[in-house]
Design a protein that fits this description.
alpha+beta, 4-stranded antiparallel beta sheet, 4 strands, about 20% strand
Length: about 130
């Protein structure tokens, strides 16, 4: 039998707070989503002034990162590099801003951010992900 760490609501709150602080520092209105390792939502925060569609996109970025065990930026780079058929992959989004959450080398979930430029979404997500340790 295997065992693994799991994300609890204490960690979700800490991840959301760290990502929110990064966004506030730069005055970026974003949506932040945290999911478990199966891509199921555990927490979501849409900041004032952020487009409603970003709530859906942030969850999809987080889910894609958790299920694929990698940053969604990697998928975007594959598509931009010519593997355009990858956009038809089920359950995955190819937009930068999803970052896996690792504890003891295992992916325990992911954080996804949407609302600003792709590299800014990723910056906020990485700031949130850093709070998992």
């Amino acid at each position: 039998m295997h065992s693994k760490p799991v994300i609890g609501q204490t960690e979700v709150a800490r991840l959301l707070a760290a990502a929110r602080q990064e966004a506030l520092t730069h005055q970026w209105n974003v949506t932040i989503a945290v999911v478990d390792d199966g891509g199921h939502p555990l927490g979501l925060e849409r900041m004032d002034g952020c487009a409603a569609a970003s709530a859906y996109i942030a969850v999809e970025k987080a889910r894609s990162s958790a299920l694929g065990r990698k940053e969604t930026r990697d998928y975007e780079q594959m598509v931009n590099g010519g593997r355009t058929a990858f956009v038809t992959a089920p359950l995955l989004t190819c937009l930068e801003g999803g970052v896996p959450l690792r504890v003891d080398g295992q992916v325990v979930g992911a954080i996804g951010v949407s609302g600003v430029k792709p590299e800014q979404d990723a910056q906020v997500a990485k700031a949130g992900a850093a709070a998992i340790t």
